[in-house]
Amino acid sequence: MYVYGRNVLKEIINAKYPVKNIYFTDSKKTDKTLNDLIELAKKHNYSFSFAPDKVLQRMVNISKHQGVVIDIGKEFKYAEEDILDNLKENATIIILDQLQDPHNFGAIIRSAVASNSDLIVIPKDNSVEITPTVIKVSVGLAFKIPILKVTNLSRFIDVIKKRGFWVYGADMSYNIYYEMDLTGNVALVMGNEGNGIREKVKSRCDALISIPMANNVDSLNVSVSAGILLFEIFKQKSR
Amino acid sequence: MYVYGRNVLKEIINAKYPVKNIYFTDSKKTDKTLNDLIELAKKHNYSFSFAPDKVLQRMVNISKHQGVVIDIGKEFKYAEEDILDNLKENATIIILDQLQDPHNFGAIIRSAVASNSDLIVIPKDNSVEITPTVIKVSVGLAFKIPILKVTNLSRFIDVIKKRGFWVYGADMSYNIYYEMDLTGNVALVMGNEGNGIREKVKSRCDALISIPMANNVDSLNVSVSAGILLFEIFKQKSR
């Protein structure tokens, strides 16, 4: 998979994420940021080469590659299920139930890292996956948080409940998000753009939480809702 | 301008927004929601006709028109500057300084209406405008809140400050958003996706407010930041 962008490369190197090769533009019109990145790749023993802008553009099918394309190999490296053994105390897990839009996924990854969350979980089927667009929208932060794919979300929720997580589903309810205690080990379930959380997943949640809204609006963009709830969790845990 | 979608038409009719014509699909495979919309349009004396799906698709260049395309005339009806005389007590104004992305604009409009905000302001130049995509992403809520275009944002900020508004710019600072008093007449300035708020606009703000972030992340998607700040304002004003 070819991913692109300067922030993306920076996060890949920060995460010591293994890649096949880095392609930098061979254009003479480089700048300090790009030269710094080349030095950084060299210092960390990453394999890299130079190629014309046109070649980079063909690799990622986009002209805004910022002079950097990275071949990260066949597939993005998702987390292994034993990740649960390695979470910190008072962890935050975000579960995305059949999210569809790569821009929403990328924005949620960015909010997850910024709000000190520990793990993102998506189902294997009927879900957006990690793509070059998702990685770009996440400004490379997809490399900074483990992302786990599970076969069965309901089963996964049962597993983390046994491990002491409280599972909150974002849905219409009488529980106002800022009146709930969201400290401790917490999992937040966000639903799909059109239909919200599936019934069978919702029934597994310990409680539903809502963002009160005016003017009869009944939902927000899912990446906005996720951001509001994640930063409430972060705020409560920071106290 | 042709806009599309069922939520969009519903909000147009709710807002009594004048349109040139509504085109419904002539497909026999209609459903209750669509029939209800046709009845609603009829009841409110909107001019409408029927056309093949292919024609609708050609009008909006998209296949997901949901059987509804609306000709809203040459241009979207922006608010007039005398809107300031008609705002409620303790109003909330959102100022978007050279926002570029239609998805961000649409998501912010949705959050603005849901958080009971009163007015959205954009500059005439170098800014995303109201387009069919923006309207669709706003789930039609662009018709539910006045949107004002101004020639000079700095001058506009001076005007509202004289009218008693406190103007907060979203930017890196030591002022944590939830520790600030955001009640009363409040304006929130959000910057552009790449560069934030322009210096000359920033210098007009009464204070800068920040969302504290972990892991050295220095910004969120702008529609997510706007959502977090707008719902903090809404929460404080609801108490």
Structure description:
- Two copies of one chain form a homodimer.
- With 239 residues, chain A is an alpha/beta fold.
- Chain A has two domains: 2-71, 60s Ribosomal Protein L30, Chain: A (2-Layer Sandwich), CATH 3.30.1330.30; 81-238, 3-Layer(aba) Sandwich (Alpha/beta knot), CATH 3.40.1280.10.
- The first copy, chain A, contains eight helices and ten strands.
- Chain A has helices spanning 6-14, 32-43, 53-60, 102-114, 132-137, 153-162, 199-202, 222-238, and strands at 2-4, 21-25, 48-51, 68-71, 92-96, 119-123, 147-150, 166-170, 186-190, 207-209.
- In chain A, the strands form two sheets. The first copy, chain A, has a six-stranded parallel β-sheet, sandwiched between helices. A four-stranded mixed β-sheet of chain A has the order 1-4-2-3.
- In chain A, strand 5 (92-96), helix 4 (102-114) and strand 6 form a beta-alpha-beta unit.
- In chain A, helix 1 packs parallel to helix 2 and helix 4 (102-114) packs parallel to helix 8.
- Chain A starts with a strand and ends with a helix.
- The mean pLDDT of chain A is 96.
- The interface between A and B is medium-sized, with 31 and 30 residues.
- Chains A, B: InterPro entries: Alpha/beta_knot_MTases (IPR029028), Ribosomal_eL30-like_sf (IPR029064), rRNA_MeTrfase_TrmH (IPR004441), SpoU_MeTrfase (IPR001537), SpoU_subst-bd (IPR013123), tRNA_m1G_MTases_N (IPR029026).
- Chains A, B: It holds the Pfam family SpoU_methylase.
